[in-house]
Design a protein that fits this description.
Layout (H helix, E strand, L loop, with lengths): L7 H11 L6 H12 L1 H24 L6 E2 L3 E5 L3 H10 L5 E3 L4 E5 L4 H13 L4
Antiparallel strand pairs: 1-2, 2-4, 3-4
């Protein structure tokens, strides 16, 4: 579920293609507050850049060199994507696995504890 903020012409085109797209009142309120809070937005940008770099470093330290990335995700190609995905999932680390090309995407851990859990899980993978 999500929302679109756009010009009326594009909104009309989307409405024709997608049909009704209701959003809960609470979601609309939260989105409105986020769009109005420029200080929060600036802090989020800084945090995302910092956390994105941290995730890239952590994965690289284990030989998982990202093939593509942004501040929210780190993605890398590997023939062992499904195996890594399953082993990490068994430890409560959720990733997104892709078939073509065989690859894996990591999102940002939320808390410091989650960062430590990810590091421990990576230590237990057979990355050879």
């Amino acid at each position: 579920m999500g929302f679109v903020l756009t010009e009326q012409i594009l909104l009309n085109q989307l409405t024709e293609r997608l049909g009704p797209w209701p959003i809960a009142h609470a979601s609309r309120y939260i989105a409105q507050q986020a769009l109005l809070d420029t200080i929060w937005q600036q802090q989020c940008r800084i945090d995302l850049v910092s956390k994105g770099k941290r995730l890239k470093r952590l994965l690289s330290d284990f030989g998982l060199k990202p093939s593509g990335s942004c501040d929210l995700f780190q993605w890398f190609k590997t023939n062992k994507a499904l195996s890594y995905h399953q082993k990490l999932a068994q430890q409560g680390i959720l990733t997104r696995v892709f078939d073509s090309p065989a690859s894996l995407r990591f999102g940002l851990p939320k808390t410091e504890h989650d960062w430590q859990r990810l590091q421990k899980a990576l230590q237990q993978l057979d990355l050879s």
